[in-house]
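Honest question from a wet-lab person: if I give you the sequences of every part of a complex, can you actually get the arrangement of the whole thing, not just the pieces? Trying it with mine:
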Amino acid sequence: MNKKQLIMEKSIELFANQGIKKTSVQQITEYCGISKGAFYLSFKSKDELILAIIDHFMQQITADIDHVVRTNHTKDILYQIFHKIFKAFLQHRDLAKFLMIEQNHSLNKELLTRMQYYHKIADKTFLEMLERIYGESINEIKYDLIYAIKGLINGYADIVIFNNGKLDLDLIATSLVEKVDILAKNITTPFITLETGEMFQDFLIEEISKEKLISMIDTSLKEIEESIEKESLVTLKQHLIEPSYNRAIINGLIENIRNHPDCKWLSYLLRRYIR
Amino acid sequence: MNKKQLIMEKSIELFANQGIKKTSVQQITEYCGISKGAFYLSFKSKDELILAIIDHFMQQITADIDHVVRTNHTKDILYQIFHKIFKAFLQHRDLAKFLMIEQNHSLNKELLTRMQYYHKIADKTFLEMLERIYGESINEIKYDLIYAIKGLINGYADIVIFNNGKLDLDLIATSLVEKVDILAKNITTPFITLETGEMFQDFLIEEISKEKLISMIDTSLKEIEESIEKESLVTLKQHLIEPSYNRAIINGLIENIRNHPDCKWLSYLLRRYIR
DNA sequence: TATACTAATGACTGTTCAGTCAGTTTGTCA
DNA sequence: TGACAAACTGACTGAACAGTCATTAGTATA
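Yes, you can. This is the full assembly:
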């Protein structure tokens, strides 16, 4: 297995059980069965490892949610999103635990900005979804709804993550959809009004440059083996340098790489760039 | 000023800004203008300081909420509680920030148990309140409602704590009351049903012993100066050793000490013991 | 087989920091 | 005034730990 991935997986386990502070690099390398030096071949520092872990998880979830919102056009979106989120929490329980336990805003400024960035994207996606589902009718309360939704997710995430039994994902999603629906149709006194909402969130997510994308493609090409994915990446790279295919083809190529774990984030960024 | 209090206040500031890990005992003592040795006269260890800070805050809020629920008998309770909670968050922004940033489950098992204890009390209090307001009608969804309420508080706490402008406490409370009311009247598909709810929460909050209470009274007596409070404490102590007054008198005595910051928790425990 | 190159090792270094303790100051009371 | 105690000081200690680097193992190429 890829050494970087090995280290990330094993350290997530340790972090989730003991916390970051109490997990030494030594311990991580011992648990991985590698030497301390090998660790520093993969990551420049312990902090970089932590950043990488958080990035990885946030990117997966962000790309997944975006995909659901983009491909669903019925009222079903909300259900799909909740289902996806809680399924991810369940599947990566260790990671989610780690994220919940150590909301390391404190670790460094870097992380704080990073998290704000993902939150902004999430807010924007939720907003798009709410507008799609409910149209104009919720205009006055849309920002308020976003905070309510995030709060609800948080509250129920606790149950999902810290309860070890099996959970009815369908029920939890259905139940939350009902709550949001009830709120959307009945709220008359939002705390976050239109003005304050727009003040809170300036939706300027800076666009990624073509060069950055190409270098990301190059990195991915080195890491993956599957031929279809490789070919798709090469073709996409060519298209970036010199546009030569129509939207449908590009869409298909992006779809080809969407489910490869190492390309999920890249596919999300590509899609946003093309649009 | 009391040295213990000085250390707590100053370190909360530092913790909120830099995180626990990056704040050394050295730095705390320098910021307080005392020596390192003096720190260890007040606290046995850095961990003990952290525990003390968290205990202090949780005890204040727990006692306050309990008081609201106990003394209000109209639908107003919900509003009062939200108002109280968010006012506390605002007033002790540093502390709340510190608590949100480092959900130190990880620090040690001690803290985890401690937090679970306060959560249990909060759950019980919320439950009592919901039953008082809505009666039998919400029986099927009461546990679900508790999680929804906690989630909403969490979501909106973020805004209150990390936004530096002034906030309309009345509006936020009103807005949340509306949300809970809407949910209480419309939810039909709870995620946490009656059975699972009772499974989650076993409401066995162990009772405190008479001896413990008396020793707590003794400690408080040493610390406070106000004569009314002192007299009340002495009388309450006598009553504990040999019951000699009726409920009304005891109630009044407890009320006398309720608003002294060093006695809030004691008054809460006394009230629970007497009942 | 020799050579060149990369991957991996783990003993070592420098630093940070919680906690200690021998000694000093301040306060109290006879 | 002096005896005694309580409060306070800060230089010091030892442990933990992130990060380095000289050396070795492994592998590809000529």
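Two things worth pointing out. The CA atoms of residues 66 and 125 of chain B lie 7 Å apart. Residues 24-26, 36-37, 39-40, 45-46 of chain B lie near DNA strand C (CB under 10 Å from a C1').
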